[in-house]
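Worked example 2:
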Amino acid sequence: MATKKPKTSSKTANKSKTTKPKSTEATVEKVAEAKVEKTETNKKNFLSGFFAKKYEGKESVLTIFKNRKLYGALLGEIIGTMLLTLVLFALSMMNIINISNYSFVVIAIFVAVYAFSGSSLNPLVTAGLMATRRVSVIRGILYIIAEVVGAWLGWMIFNAFHMAGGESAYDIPTMSAIAEGGFWTVAIVELVGAIILSFFFARAQDYKRSVFTYAAIIAGGLVAVILIGYVVSAAFLGLENNFAFNPAVAMMYQIFPTSGENFGEILGGICQALSAYAIIPMIGGIVGFYLSDFTKKLSED
């Protein structure tokens, strides 16, 4: 005689399978509450994560030189800054109306070296990247050195063509002496231009997935500050060739005095030139990056 198996309700079986233990439900509730508390805390703490590190990995003097990609990045900064210096030297010898034509060249330069180093090509931009913790301090210092070397190579190439041209060549462009416009006049023009340019660079960081968009934003910012600097300097201040908005390039424009009544006067002129064309623009670069981040933080809130 066959024995019948006791019938088990399928609904009861499914219910037993899907019912979660009470401990699991409590854990889920705690996680949800923690997320809500974290969100409320972030809203109260407006600057939460504002100064957080934005680059991956840890870099120090002992470890960074073991990364072979670093050398490609430095070479990219040298080549890119060299090309940019050549373009800016050529630009300074032509009519300012033709400046829009150079935006395409600038886009090409940034696209060409973007994959190597991210295309800083400017110490004031690199200073902003370091201050906002987008790159490590040691990498930023190496980038600045590479940018100065690249600008020097660009000047050497430009000067070589000038010497080869003999008397028919154009004169190498030089910056106006600080004494002509006054230290603070030159410094303020550099500061305002550096803030605007670094703001464009900071905004471009959000579009790094599209290299053409990234380069176009930067090129547009560069054209904008040159136009603004030209109008302010020439139309309002009566000055010419008194801005560069790139400390590495500015140092190649013969900004340092070579003569004076005594050593103290020469040294004072060198310090003035470094302050107006290097230190103050780098401060402006930091301000521009933080201004961009602060604006973005406000919009997200």
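The chain is about 70% helix and 0% strand. The radius of gyration is 28 Å.
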